[in-house]
Amino acid sequence: MTFHKAKKVVIIAEKMLSNKICEIIDASGARGYTVVPAGGKGGHHRHFTSERASVVDDFSTVRIEVIVNDKSIAEGIGNKVVEDCFGNYSGIVYLEDVEILRPAKFNGE
Amino acid sequence: MDFLADFFLRFIEQFQSPTLGFLIGGMLVAALGSKLKIPNAIYQFIVFMLLMKIGLNGGIEIREANLLAMALPAVFSILIGLAVVRVGITVFSLLPGVNKQDGIATAGLFGAVSASTLAVAIVMLEEESIAFEAWAPALYPFMDIPALILAIVMANIHLKKQEKENGEGKEKEKETKVNVWQIIKESLRGSALSALLLGLALGLLTNSESVLTSFYEPLFKGFLSILMLIMGMEAYDRIKELRSVAHWYAIYAAVAPLIHGLIAFTLGYIAHLLVGFSPGGVIILSVIASSNSDISGPPTLRAGIPSANPSSYIGASTSVGTPVAIAVGIPLFIALAQIVFDI
Q: How many domains would you assign to chain B?
């Protein structure tokens, strides 16, 4: 099997934004994404991981990963997330080069 | 002098309650850097358990209650919720170095209601065997929702005004329109209120006495003690955040719960004279007023007033406001009621 070059967009954002971000990803034409709980420290304050009880759970962070074949789609997702969500909420977006198997799984061709 | 001495003794007595002990213990453990962790899932389950029990209990007793008696306290709850937020916003606008949006969000959070504080009050009233109307905890949403709505509406009005001054109002006009129905829906769907309302409905419509007495009742106090431990740990952790915002938040958070509670006590006393609202009910109303939301309020405000800095309002509520409402407020109102109503 051959590996194909693709782009991965990684978004780390407050949990309460995850629905909105996933809608952006769905609208972009990507076929799927992965959401995992995150934690750590950002420019504003520490975000706890989910292993510890937190009275306000919605401020914990999530890491949303989406892989697409096309670089312009990846950039489109990143830009839209920053424009729509990160005006008032904290979060980061970055792209990574990845190599994938079965490229047909990633965006409709 | 006798009055004061008596009051003080009763006040001190409340500190021996195990509930407060766990709260202080949690702070102490966190301060000493303990690795003790209680998983988040357990915290969420405990909140559900406590509110389900309060709801079931209320629902069962509402069956025989005269609901007309609830009307006046419910109206008072709405008024208190709105007044607390309105006064809070004015207070913050007079203080130097306070961001307007942060001030509005903080006032909103202090007008809203804390489910855990309510649960503590119920246990402490049971320990003192002070009777209260079982529907009194159902006053919660009457204060909680109007307070959050008023804060979000005020914040958006302010934001619009600011944008107009900056000449960029037109583009954003559509986005800043407040959807009140959306806020009500979100509040009712929140984990705390959902559990409370579901409990009320189940208590009212089903024969839920057996599950209440065999499962929810016996576990109530034990779970509450764990909840207090978690809240103590969280309170200590959040103090660090509070250091990074203006000190006015800490001062407001320490004083406001007691003033709000005393206003509610006065209104509750009026309801006592007019419609025979019980002394326990007056205490519950005072506690609801003095409490500041910790579970459902912060996410609602974060979504409704995104430009406010969450560190300011969550720090103020979790690390100062809630411990003050629980450790000082509840004993104060119980002691006050014991003297005023001679119970």
A: 1
Q: Please check whether residue A86 touches B, CB under 8 A.
A: no
Residues near B293 by beta carbon (within 8 Å), at least 6 away in sequence: B109, B112, B113, B114, B144, B148, B317
Interchain proximity A16–B39, CB inside 8 Å: no
Residues B332, B190, B183, CA angle at the centre, nearest 5°?
100
Q: What is the pLDDT along chain B (343 residues), one digit of tens a residue?
A: 677 787 777 777 767 777 888 998 999 999 998 888 888 889 889 999 999 999 999 888 888 777 788 899 999 999 999 999 999 999 999 988 888 999 999 999 999 999 999 999 998 898 889 999 988 998 999 999 999 999 999 998 888 888 777 765 455 444 556 778 888 888 888 888 899 999 999 999 999 999 999 999 999 989 999 999 999 998 888 887 777 777 889 999 999 999 999 999 999 999 999 999 999 999 999 999 999 988 888 888 888 888 888 888 888 898 899 999 998 999 899 989 988 988 7
Sort out which chain B residues have CB atoms less than 8 A from A58's CB and list them: 298-299, 302
| Closest Cβ–Cβ partner in B44, B298, B307 for A88 | B307
**Partner B contacted by A83 (CB < 8 A):** no
Give the distance from residue A14's alpha carbon to the nearest chain B alpha carbon, in angstroms.
Answer: 11
In chain B, what residues touch A53 (CB-CB under 8 Å)? 37-40, 42-43, 230, 233-234
* Domain of residue A36, residue span: 4-105
- Judging contacts by C-beta atoms under 8 Å, the chain B residues touching residue A38 are none
Name the residue with tokens 């509520």: B317
Q: Are A73 and A107 in contact (CB under 8 A)?
A: yes
Interface residue A41 vs chain B (CB under 8 A) = no
Q: Phi and psi at residue B26, in whole multiples of 5°?
A: -60, -45
- In SS3 terms, B108-146 reads as HHHHCCCHHHHHHHHHHHHHCCCCCCCCHHHHHHHHHHH
CATH code for the domain of B278: 1.20.1530.20
Size of interface A-B (CB pairs under 8 A): 56
Residue of A nearest to B319 (CA): A55
Q: What's the domain range around B306? A: 2-340
Interface pTM, i.e. ipTM: 0.71
Partner B contacted by A16 (CB < 8 A): yes
CATH code for position A22: 3.30.70.120
Residue with tokens 């009457």: B142
